[in-house]
Write a structure and sequence with these properties.
490 residues; globular; binds glutamine
């Protein structure tokens, strides 16, 4: 077994795949190494709500058979973690909510199923902000997750468990979901790589809905290549999701060219202004210089003035969709049900009162208010109109630029408990990521440095279906630097 100095649990998926194919390691060996790592670090990280140890051992044996028989894909035998808002048949899928604590879905989400079909080995389901509402994973009904780089800091959210699990070596690949930044912001906070694909590229079938016009599943990995490999497996039309694009997925690994010559990259002025920590700004601008040295043509001042409206628009649209999506948790069909009610109305009320946490209730109230008669035109319709303007502003910018560059988060990871009593402060964590969901375009976050030992993320945004452009720019940056090779001391 020759893996150099890298322990098995910190291998990249593509390195692991090569070693598996060469017979230098087995899937069983790799899975055991990852399970051991989980047991060693999980008491400090708390990234997982379920560990699927027995299923993982069975899947690893099957993966070894597949490899021996020459039926392997690049992800066969690779340990996988799924965010706990993705349905897994027979395996608890809680959304980190009391409402779904005992829910075992009768089917598996399409994106998850495609990874399992490719031979990935599910080792666990990850902790998250309840129903994906939050930016720190502190809104989990069960426990907060800790940032592997500093146990007193948050891992970001809402896919904080998946991002922390990658950073901590509790898995090699993971899926998250991103409605306003929930893949990219935790990727940034945990020093890993996260991709939010173009809306419609990855099926949402079996993803427990938060805000359906914004939700998108995507990869969390330790490097850009693994993200492209995961996209290859999960992208592509799915008849079970009516918003899934009718389009065959390209081979995303062909975009992994370590050369940005001729690429036009725009630095978005509004995302380097007030509220952005100066050290974060300097670190991200330095990353732009690296891309310039690699041949990119950098426009240092691209103004997107509609950016200032993105957060207010999001906090009308996302809660409106959430209030409608979450109406199904009535204590009758499935999930938590309060018993002892005198009538149906009391049962429904008590189920929702005890089943949902405070942030979820806040969103339902905001959404129900914005959609109510008399307010609909003033809030929801207006927000939809501004959404169109934001989308057009991005379309226009992409007539001149291949990729836009911003920080992923205006700050490094904040302290646990620091923002839990201030929802507005918490919402501001997503100021750089939310416009991307509103415009429906793809973006990647990858590590670009550290401030006081805490990771900083670089966000690269592409035009609609421009995954290849952001992958190429990200890969060029990654290959010119070594931030992605850093691992927290745990
Ligand atoms: N933090 C944002 C929110 O709370 C985004 C969450 C997400 O992308 N799921 O809504």
């Amino acid at each position: 077994m020759t893996t150099g100095d890298t322990p098995l649990h910190h291998l990249s998926a593509h390195e692991a795949s090569r070693l598996l194919a060469a017979g230098e390691i087995s899937a069983v060996e790799l899975t055991e190494a990852v399970l051991n790592r989980i047991h060693a670090v999980e008491p400090r990280v708390r990234g997982l709500v379920t560990i699927t140890e027995e299923q993982a051992r069975g899947a690893a044996r099957e993966a070894d058979r597949r490899i021996r028989e020459g039926r392997a894909t690049p992800l066969t035998g690779v340990p996988l973690v799924l965010k706990d808002n993705m349905c897994t048949e027979g395996i608890p899928t809680t959304c980190s909510s009391r409402m779904l604590r005992d829910f075992r879905p009768p089917y598996t989400a399409t994106a998850a199923q495609r990874l399992l079909d490719a031979g990935a080995v599910l080792v666990g389901k990850s902790n998250m902000d309840e129903f994906a509402m939050g930016s720190s994973t502190e809104n989990s009904a069960f426990f907060p997750t800790h940032n592997p780089w500093n146990a007193n800091r948050v891992p970001g959210g809402s896919s904080g468990g998946s991002a922390a699990a990658i950073a901590a070596g509790e898995t090699l690949i993971a899926l998250g979901s991103d409605t306003g930044g929930s893949i990219r912001q935790p990727a940034s906070f945990c020093g890993v790589t996260g991709i939010k694909p173009t809306y419609g590229v990855v099926s949402r079938h079996g993803l427990i809905a938060f805000a359906s016009s914004l939700d998108q599943i995507g990869p969390l990995t330790s490097n850009v290549t693994d993200g492209a490999l995961m996209l290859n497996a999960i992208a592509g039309h799915d008849a079970m999701d009516s918003t899934s694009l009718r389009r065959d997925a390209p081979d995303y690994t062909r975009a992994l060219i370590p050369d940005a010559r001729g690429m036009k990259i725009g630095v978005v002025t509004e995302m380097f202004g007030a509220g952005v920590e100066p050290e974060v700004r300097d670190t991200v601008l330095q990353a732009a210089r690296v891309l310039e040295q690699a041949g990119a043509i950098v426009d240092w001042e691209v103004s997107l003035p509609m950016t200032q409206h993105a957060l207010p628009v999001y906090y009308i649209l996302a809660p409106s969709e959430a209030s409608s999506n979450l109406a199904r948790y009535d204590g009758i069909k499935y999930g938590y049900s309060w018993d002892g009610a005198a009538d149906m109305w009391e049962g429904m009320e008590k189920t929702r009162q005890h089943g949902f946490g405070p942030e979820v209730k806040r969103r339902i109230l905001l959404g129900a208010y914005a959609l109510s008669s008399g307010y609909y035109d003033a809030y929801y319709r207006k927000a939809q109109q501004v959404r169109t303007l934001i989308r057009r502003e991005y379309e226009d910018a992409f007539t001149r630029h291949d990729v836009l560059l911003t920080p992923t988060s205006p700050t490094v990871p904040f302290g646990l408990g620091e923002r839990t009593n201030n929802p507005l402060q918490m919402y501001l964590a997503d100021i750089c990521t939310i416009p991307v969901n509103i415009a429906g375009v793809p973006a990647i976050s990858l590590p670009c440095g550290f401030v006081n030992g805490l990771p900083v993320g670089l966000q690269l945004i592409g035009p609609s279906l421009g995954e290849e452009a952001i992958l190429r720019a990200a890969y060029t940056y990654e290959q010119a630097t070594d931030w992605h090779t850093r691992r927290p001391a745990l």
